Give the backbone structure.
Amino acid sequence: MVATHAAEHVRNPAMPLDLSMFEGHAVNRSAAERRASTLSARRSVKKVYQAAWLVNAVRMIDLTTLSGDDTEGKVQRLCAKARQPIAPYIMDGLGLSEMDLTVGAVCVYPTMVPHAVKALKGTSIPVASVATGFPAGLIPLNLRLEEIKYAVGEGAGEIDIVINREMALKQEWNQLYDEIAAMREACGEAHLKAILATGELETLRNVYAASMVAMQAGADFIKTSTGKEGVNATLPVSLTMVRALRDYGDATGYQIGFKPAGGIKAAKEAIAWQVLMKEEMGREWLEPHLFRFGASSMLGDIERQLEHHVTGRYASSSRHAMS
């Protein structure tokens, strides 16, 4: 695969709905589960190589706070962590003191966007905002579109929307396509990440079809979960979505990003998902413009593992708070 720098990345322009690209497409669940189970086992990384994979994972984290008790101060602390995700003494020990390491983005609720924009001023870290009645999305479409416009107007450069799960479950693909297309238009220049809430879609066939509809409607990323479902990101579901974006790329020539989210907490999971992308899509998908993690606590575990690599000792988790 020929490498493409983020600056050269061509945004997905959308296309008319084409049911033939996914209707009748069978997904073998047992085969997907078997393939997913072999990914980490086939590629075991240790020592300096493990440290390198973990540092790379930091670059692709959407550092997130989506709590009812979010405040300006909490967002400011999160943004400070986004600016300097790994402690300087650990970076020195890794020989990376000159590296300008930051996370991929900071993700917040729409009303928190102005605080994040202010706290990240002078950096290249984008602010992402959930919208469209996150996490359920069960409010009228006009209100969902207005929420997107509000977040963009406040400075969000990325919008994480939720799809209408009822339409996906009833396979009302035309209606789902129209809604996502309207959301893409409301985003303007802001990139759109379509959250499928895969734990609520019942079948991998629905996951594949919803992925295709979202991409045809103009999604820049497809994302597994809101983090609020009973079942969030899993490797078999992620494999199904990744195969869909690969098929879409083969058919159209456009590269779509992927974002697993929800329940991703351990450093070893960061490696497992990167292995998935490397094995299925190639090295190019280990860059922030094509791959992100939706996470909050995972960064603390990554920092803890990197400190162990540098010092040979495990610090208590309280030493590496999220913010």
Notes: Confidence is low (pLDDT under 50) at residues 1-5. Strands lie at 61-64, 105-108, 127-130, 158-162, 191-195, 221-223, 257-259, 293-295. Residues 45 and 177 are 41 Å apart (CA to CA). The two ends are 38 Å apart (CA to CA).
